[in-house]
Write a structure and sequence with these properties.
mainly alpha; globular
Length: 218
């Protein structure tokens, strides 16, 4: 008979897979097709470049700050749901307020919520793997599958759908993420987490991050 831990791990793996699928459908729509939406609004090539570049800068601030806030709140599932719903709201507003300045501001707002959702979901998934025996690697794989599927599906669908449907579909996927993340198993806060000293960062880690940044920028 399977143990309670193995049953919990199996159930948690399926839920985490759904979370990753919902989370990665959104960039599957966004990365290839968001410029198509911007073109439909009459954006110039320069404005499109600014819109695509804004998230890179916003994430530098948003991701570490969101990590600190999530740790202090101590409710990671609820925090992730807030991030998903906040980003979804910003994308909906892009369809309602299609002016250039408004969309650029909303891109920044969406990134404030959306950017941190990826590393914080990974952090939660790794904890589930360690504490509940969840198969993190297999669950994460479904994020990649969903990303590719979203690329292909929306590419075909845009033959008949209007460009505005792109931001609506992104918003729907983020709402599904917010809903599915609430179904993940609860985790107890680490003992003594509030009193713990900040971890020291190894020089090797800094070098690895710097190298990864060079790869991304190139």
């Amino acid at each position: 008979m399977p143990s309670r831990t193995s049953l919990g791990g199996s159930k948690g793996s399926g839920t985490l897979s759904a979370v990753y699928a919902a989370l990665f459908v959104a960039p599957g729509f966004y990365l290839p097709f968001f410029p198509v939406f911007l073109v439909s609004l009459g954006f110039s090539p320069e404005a499109i470049g600014i819109a695509i570049g804004i998230p890179m800068g916003v994430r530098l601030l948003a991701n570490p700050v969101a990590g600190i806030l999530s740790d202090r709140w101590g409710r990671p599932r609820r925090f992730l749901a807030v991030l998903g719903l906040g980003a979804a709201s910003a994308f909906v507003l892009m369809a309602i307020l299609p002016g250039t300045a408004a969309v650029l501001l909303l891109v920044a707002l969406a990134t404030l919520f959306w950017g941190p959702a990826f590393p914080l979901t990974d952090a939660f998934g790794v904890r589930l793997a360690r504490e509940r025996g969840v198969d993190y690697g297999r669950a994460r794989l479904w994020g990649s599958v969903a990303f590719i599927g979203a690329n292909v599906a929306l590419g075909v669908a845009l033959e008949v759908l209007p460009p505005a449907s792109i931001v609506w579909l992104i918003a729907v996927s983020l709402v599904l993420f917010a809903v599915s993340v609430q179904m993940l198993p609860r985790l107890k806060p680490p003992a003594g987490a509030t009193a713990a000293a900040p971890p020291k960062v190894s020089a090797k880690v800094v070098l690895a991050v710097f190298a990864a940044a060079l790869v991304q920028s190139s």
